[in-house]
Amino acid sequence: MAIQPPILRGGDTIGIVTLGSPLDASIIDARIETLEGMGFNVLVGKYAYSYDGIVASTAPQRAEDFMEMISNPQVKMILPTRGGTGVRDILPYLDYQLISRNPKIITGYSDITILLNVLNQFANLITFQSLLLIDFNTSTPAYNFDQFFAATSTLSKSRVIQNPPGMQLKSLVHGNVSGQIVGGNLTSFVGSLGTPYEINTTGKIVVIEETHEPTNTIYRYLTQLIMAGKFQHCQGIVMGQCTNCSVSYSTSYDDIINSLIYPLGKPLMTNLSTAHGSYKAAIPIGAMVDLNTSNNTLTVLEPTVKM
Q1: CATH code of 47's domain
Q2: Is 209 annotated in the active site?
């Protein structure tokens, strides 16, 4: 059973770090103001405002910020400013035993999902594909906050992950399986193949999403995961959205799912509101879930935080 981080309460301290690409200081400040208006205390990492071209700062510096938040007993949640490029670079510099002994809520999406899955694999920690700092603003749909706080601030023993009204989940291969849920951003996982940090999907339910990639690239990446055996021993597959993905060769994202993923014969659900889309379901990486594609439901089977 994976380690549940302590529950997030009003008045808790949230640590802000930039683990990949830099973010404009004015945006960071505005989002921090939103967090403080919600009743949270905020601690900003030393390199959160840094800018070093493609990445915010060196990999050791970004890892240092992260580990300082882990070591600080006042910090209850670590909230990256954004994803972007370079999150994978920090992985060799993290102390996974220390992380396991000091569990925190760690949330995000995009390139952050490689970190979320590695923390589950190496530190046995439940993490959350959910909001980033950039999402704490007045234009964020209430659905996203409802999902986030249901995962991080309640002790519910069972939570059905539902799309917002008007956005229908679709089940293409029927079945009923249970297992830990893993996954996230497609590009990030393809980039980790052949490294010590590639995703472990054996016995797991795998969720995949992507953004701003043409469908010929999606085809290429999914084929790479299939050839790498990442769907061979998984229990089931949940395909999230491909947000702003352009059509190539008259072939849509759904066409690719039908041609590549459907023939694998695994219980298959599609169209889950995820990550880069306007609506973001909160996926607890490493938690036990039930995927019932006969009833079209995805249910978290355990509390994802603890007192």
Answers
A1: 3.40.50.10740
A2: yes
